Amino acid sequence: MLLIPCPWCGPRAQIEFTYGGDADVRRPKDAMAATGAAWHDYVYLRDNPRGSHDEIWQHSAGCRRWLRLTRDTLTHAIIDSAPPTKEPPS
Amino acid sequence: MPEALPREPAIRPVQKVGTASTAGVVLTLRPAATILRLCAPLDHAPFVAALAAAGLSLPEDPCISEQWGDATAFWVAPGEWWLVDIGATLTETTIRADLPARPRAIVDLSHSRTIMRIGGSQAVDLVAKGCPLDLDPTAFPTGGCPQSVLAGVNLLLHRLPANAGFDLYVPRSYARHLWEWLQLAGAEYRISVAAG
Ligand SMILES: [Zn+2]
Question: Which residues of chain B have a CB within 8 Å of the CB of A66?
Fold first, then answer.
């Protein structure tokens, strides 16, 4: 069980949150031109880092806002928790 | 605007009499209230200012409520509040009149929630059995209104003044489940059910 700091509500139990996946997955910019391999990569392939990992979570049973969490997959330590960036990173 | 339907209770509790004096927990079904959700997610400053000019100050800090007589304003998310009025003097029409037109949304949630009150000396112990929140008054003070989970149900908890316990804002279709769970989980505290 993780204790996740919501940027608004403060530290809350993991069961109040929904995991939204790797924060750095990028949708192919030109959907029509993207290759099958690029779509396959976007939909299915994920890194599985040992250590720091940027993730998105939703405080689904709380304020229902999305947040960006940096978490150590080895120690479960929470490194950072912040509101999502306004613009999708390029 | 369509005519509002009368508010029917989601459950009809059976009173358990004769135990209130020794009960550690007293469970009461609260009367239906007007619940309005106000939402101005992008820029809520004009919205807060307009309501303040009408004498209604919205809480700006997360998970904290503000009392206005019979009505309460709950912070539920950034730029989002619930106005709850037991006296039913607040209506969507009156609130709408006080607010700048855009950007904002007002939704009447009155029919969507059932309000239950848990009082008594062991109310905190009962909530702790099914809720992951830190219930210490330093983390969850009087007037606090965090949303969380109780016995698997997403809900809003409002901590009442004078150690009066908690009001639970329960999604209506989960009301029966939670009402039964509270009685089972509260049995060891000699729970008493008031008619409300
Ligand atoms: Zn939150």
Answer: none
Which pTM was predicted?
0.91
> If we measure between CA atoms, which residue out of B165, B150, B159 comes closest to residue B118?
B165
CATH number at residue A61: 3.30.2270.10
Q: Which domain holds residue A59?
A: 1-24+50-90
Sign of the dihedral through C-alpha B77, B59, B34, B128 = positive
| Nearest chain B residue to A12, by CA | B133
- CB contacts of B133 in chain A (<8 Å) are 12-13
Q: How far apart are alpha carbons B48 and B4 in whole angstroms?
A: 27
* A30 assigned to some structural domain: no
Backbone dihedral angles phi then psi of residue A26, each to the nearest 5 degrees: -115, 130
Per-residue pLDDT of chain A (90 residues; tens, 9 = 90+): 899 999 999 999 999 999 999 998 989 999 999 999 999 999 999 999 999 999 999 999 999 999 999 999 999 999 999 998 766 555
